[in-house]
Amino acid sequence: MSVKIPQSHFDLIDGPVLITLTTLMPDGQPHSTIVWCNSDGENVLVNTARGRQKDKNMSADPKVTLLALDPNDDFRYIEIRGVVDEITEVGAAEHIAELARLYMDAPAFYGHVAPADLAGKETRVIYKIRPTKVRTLGG
Amino acid sequence: MSVKIPQSHFDLIDGPVLITLTTLMPDGQPHSTIVWCNSDGENVLVNTARGRQKDKNMSADPKVTLLALDPNDDFRYIEIRGVVDEITEVGAAEHIAELARLYMDAPAFYGHVAPADLAGKETRVIYKIRPTKVRTLGG
User: Which of A3, A34, A72, A112 is the best mutation test for B, with the most CBs of B within 10 A?
Assistant: First the structure.
């Protein structure tokens, strides 16, 4: 099962809006972080590094939920509940660079760490999240 | 077990910052919404109305997680994982009015609905969330 991301709120997923990604800890407690994302038109793509908590969580339990709040409208957001359909390292370094351009207008920037410090030190991963339930507020 | 909310990030919980509240659906899928909150100094207080999904979820499973992102700093946030320790209707109408003043500088405003339209139509509830794990980014 898959549901469409409505055009009315697609800008919150494809634009440079920080989103809250929630994954599940082994004991079932939700774990929330702030991430960048974009989409392939149908699925949400997030990018993290191997070994991080959300990487471990999504590898163990595919149930995840995203919330993207419009930074200019307190009463406009989209919640996407879904499942991780694919986990891949293919293209992940290029994808995080693409997100850096989108979010920071920078050729590459991984959080607080300069790219040179990261070379060979981390393995980037793309998580493809298939929406199974979408809820929106506002127009 | 309880952990303290660090002073460095207390403003994100006690100030008028919109937070993402994640509860758990009956099937374990995370459910995220945007809410107002404040605190009693140790616990986070959120306020909803009986019958809403997050009310049902928190009544059934006490595991919840909050994330508050600094609207002025993309790299500063606090994540609070915790449990719902108390659910009460006592003082809940006053509490939502207090939050309306804090967030909207209004005497009372419940989302998009004028107070007069809500009189007698909903029962407000306070959820007291005890932090069990706190994680921060930024200073």
Answer: A34
| pTM across the whole model | 0.92
| Phi, psi dihedrals of residue A91, rounded to the nearest 5° | 80, 5
Provide the ipTM. Answer: 0.92
Q: How would residue B107 be classed by pLDDT, with cut points 50, 70 and 90?
A: low
Pick the closest to residue B54 from B26, B74, B77 (CA basis): B26
Is residue B111 pLDDT above 80, yes or no? Answer: no
Q: Find the CB nearest B67 among A20, A74, A112.
A: A20
How far apart, in whole angstroms, are the C-alpha atoms of residue A103 and residue B26?
A: 35
Q: Give the mutation candidate from B21, B29, B109, B135 for the A interface (greatest A CB count, under 10 A).
A: B29
Distance CA B48, CA B19 (A): 14
Q: Which residues does A40 contact at the CB level (< 8 Å), separation at least 6?
A: A128
pLDDT for position B117: 55
**What domains are defined for chain B?**
7-137 (2.30.110.10)
The helix, strand and coil proportions of chain B, stated in percent and rounded to the nearest 5, come to 25, 40, 35
So what's the pLDDT on residue A137?
Answer: 95
